[in-house]
Amino acid sequence: MHATFVAPGDSSSADIASYIEFQEILLEARALRSKHRRRELRVRERSLKWRAALIPKVAEILRRHFGDKITAKEAANKIRRICPDKQRLRELFDFFSKTPPTPTLTSEEVAAEKADITRRERELRAWIQISRHLDVLSNRAQSGESDAIERLAEIGRNVVFSMMLAERMHPEAVRKVARSQMLWPFLASAKAGWEDSMFDKIQKLELGKHLEVLHTPFHPARGPDVNYPARRWAKAAVRTIEETRLRHLLLREVKTEAEEIVLGGLVGYAKSPEWSRKACDLPMFSKDTVPEWGVIVREMIREQAPNFHARPEWENQRNTAAHSARNTVGEIRNAILDDITSALKRVAPKCRNSCAEIKQVKKEKPSRKNKVCCSI
Description:
With 376 residues, the chain is an all-alpha fold. It has helices at 13-66, 72-82, 86-97, 107-142, 146-169, 171-178, 194-205, 229-253, 255-263, 274-279, 290-304, 315-323, 329-347, 355-364. The protein contains 14 helices and no strands.
């Protein structure tokens, strides 16, 4: 349920494995949801068929009764003959005795949704199969097998070529998807300047435009990040918390199906650390909310990287602690965490407004003296 915090510079294999495992569970839950919806549509379709056959006949019998052409007993006997099933008979009388119900799906709409579910199920099955095969290649590549690495590179190229073709043929459909994605596949080139074309394409795709609530645009700080370990750790911590919040949101959409998978013994929930539950209640990341985020960041780093104080990038903090005679493990850890939370303030955007507030700001066109800062 939670993302794995990986210290900047370390191998991210644990985080990748965690992400793949989460995606597999999410795919299984979505496939189960499609199965449930298909079952509901089959029931609805059968109901539409027998209702369409019986309602006109029953309506004609009732019309004759209310027109004093047949008695109530004769009407009841006729209705029982054409509909001997007591459950359906009860539903028919409910239909005629109550206020006309709100229009529901027609038979044509049911057929259209069934076709859409079939298409999505086909895509999900392909996705699940590909994910499993990639997992095999990934494990072999991590063990150093050159053939597996070459196969993964070929698959990556084919995926990007397919995406490029889709973008050329249906640019708006691709852009719509990209707005809700945090990452996008590209091909790196040995030619100089390929990064510029990649950046232009990201701008054109509007990558992540709808996810800035979950993916903070960091405030640019002076100097390269490589010279500031606290800043790198602060950014990595924010991304870990954001990924955790996203996973909770995605699983919430298929909560019933996920619980069914767990109860069926297919997967089990590991005990979530306390910080991951608190992370879901955090407000949007900004300079105003840094104190709240700082508490969770400190708790997360302590839990995910308990020996972080011994890492080489914190040598200055260890030396400073030794000179000041405050060099216990607890004091060194607190000093490092203080630096990381201070870095959070430097990378946090000044404000995070809702979409409605942004539109209002644009309408008002504030003057330079009364400048409004927005990050979305």
